[in-house]
Amino acid sequence: MSSYSNRVTALFGINYPIVQAGMVWASGWRLASAVSNAGGLGIIGAGSMYPDVLREHLRKCKAATSRPFGVNVPLLYPDMDKLMQVMLEESVKIIFTSAGNPKTWTGILKEQGITVVHVVSSSKFAKKAEDAGCDAVVAEGFEAGGHNGREETTSMVLIPAVSAAVQVPVIAAGGIATGRQMMAAMVLGAEGVQVGTRFVASVEASSHAAFKDRVIHSEEGDTQLSMKKLVPVRMIKNAFFKQVWDAEQRGAGEDELKQILGRARAKKGMFEGDLDEGELEIGQVSALVKEILPAEKIVRILWEEFLDATQHPFNIV
Prior knowledge:
2 domains, eight-stranded parallel sheet, alpha/beta, 317 residues
């Protein structure tokens, strides 16, 4: 496949403006290296990793690919200082931050020559990320899985709003699993896309096989945003979701919701495969994902679909 050149590919040194999202319990070194080797930007999701585990994944990823890759770090997670120290010691070149104030770390990382991208859910926060010195922003719409913005702005509205608000490159996320959706995001002002759900259903994703199977059998309406009093998260409706939903409907406060959530609920669902009591984080676009494929093939299909869509925009299959 021929490569493509714009500000996103130039910023990361990649062939295609396709970024694999850094998802907890799904995006370890195998997935990240496979996406990078395919010409996209693979991302290790550090949110579910202890510092020593992150170091192991970084070293294995370096051994598996000579291509650029990055790390996603949710800033609300504990041990942030230790995680950042590991990334500095291992000479990580690209870091995506999310779920927190970009001013906290961006300056420090930029001083080390690191490319910094921040995930935002509004044009207001996009401006703050740009002011903090971020090299690009990810505009993540309401359709996305996992931790989500409180604003509930859909990608169709968010992408053009953020693109108009900042000068740095915008990477679109939330509801993108096909090349035609990728083209739509680019038409709206993005210069690249970040894809999560489609890569959860990949051979190399570290998520449990039972979770992957549940994803590819999802239908429209099977996911919903919940836990808005804590950190809003989109997940598949299951027994755990119903417990949270019932509690929210009767007006449960933060303390009760925290008790229901407990510890390691996402690990139980996505990594250990407990489809009833686990937290199954995934995006709305799971309804369009129908098979588990190698990451390299996902990148290739996305790009081929994108090229076809740009050449034949009205040929809807």
